[in-house]
């Protein structure tokens, strides 16, 4: 079995979160975007790689905690984004989840800064990877 | 960048299809299950690994053609299944799609046989991996 495993090459697996930030009165303030510390630079959804031995949903919650210090609850899977050209470094497939939190993000790890953007203030022209496409899919999913 | 890539370990990425087979009159006959030729033995949804450089949806269509000789159209993503214990061989994450076809399956590749099972005749106790959970999620999604 080991030899079979070693013959396989597989894309890298990542997960990104569209974190909807709500007030205590359940009013939507916006979603979280980070400014990346490491290349590729630019604005992006918070996210990261899935570890071996970790469920994708666990990886998402870990990354949201590590990168923007938020405890999120997952609402739904938005989609799987797998275009080999979506990440210029290597083939990386991302499972994107819509999730929810109530606090303000605090940047750490890969994030130089992290802020809440209302849905009509998304800086689409500054987004890296395929995050413009992902956020447009999210807005469509929200009926916007 | 290369050194960063080499430090990463990542789960294997696979894709499985719930192929709904319809008559020309658009009547649902059932879904396709295979009997596996290789371990783990048992009944399973058709599926396989995603290659580097290939979109997950392309991998799905390729695998459905290779394993059960069907040209499928994708209806929707059902879910991402990533429990590290779902495959006893290694950590393997599967993106599962609901799809549609009109012909009869013909077994090849990893499949010893392939048949259409009506939705009330699924052999749940003979399914391998977490395909029992996946098919139950599918039935729920169909409102059954």
Automatic annotation (TrEMBL), chains A, B:
Stated name of the protein: NUDIX hydrolase
Pfam families: NUDIX
Domain named Nudix hydrolase: residues: 11-141
GO MF, any single term: hydrolase activity
Classification of source organism: Bacteria, Pseudomonadati, Campylobacterota, Epsilonproteobacteria, Campylobacterales
SUPFAM superfamilies: Nudix (SSF55811)
Keyword presence, Transmembrane: no
PROSITE patterns (UniProt xref): NUDIX (PS51462), NUDIX_BOX (PS00893)
UniProt keywords, alphabetically: Hydrolase
Protein family: Belongs to the Nudix hydrolase family.
InterPro entries recorded: Nudix_hydrolase (IPR020476), NUDIX_hydrolase-like_dom_sf (IPR015797), NUDIX_hydrolase_CS (IPR020084), NUDIX_hydrolase_dom (IPR000086)
């Amino acid at each position: 079995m080991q030899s079979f495993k070693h013959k396989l090459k597989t894309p890298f697996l990542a997960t990104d979160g569209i974190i909807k930030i709500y007030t205590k009165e359940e009013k939507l303030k916006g979603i979280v975007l980070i400014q990346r510390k490491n290349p590729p630079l630019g604005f992006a959804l918070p996210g990261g790689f899935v570890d071996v031995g970790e469920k994708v949903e666990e990886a998402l919650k870990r990354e949201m905690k590590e990168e923007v210090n938020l405890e999120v609850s997952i609402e739904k899977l938005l989609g799987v984004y797998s275009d080999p050209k979506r990440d210029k470094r290597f083939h990386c497939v991302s499972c994107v989840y819509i999730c929810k939190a109530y606090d303000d993000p605090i940047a750490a790890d890969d994030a130089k800064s992290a802020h809440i953007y209302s849905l009509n203030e998304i800086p689409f022209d500054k987004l890296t990877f395929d995050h413009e496409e992902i956020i447009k899919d999210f807005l469509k999913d929200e009926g916007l």
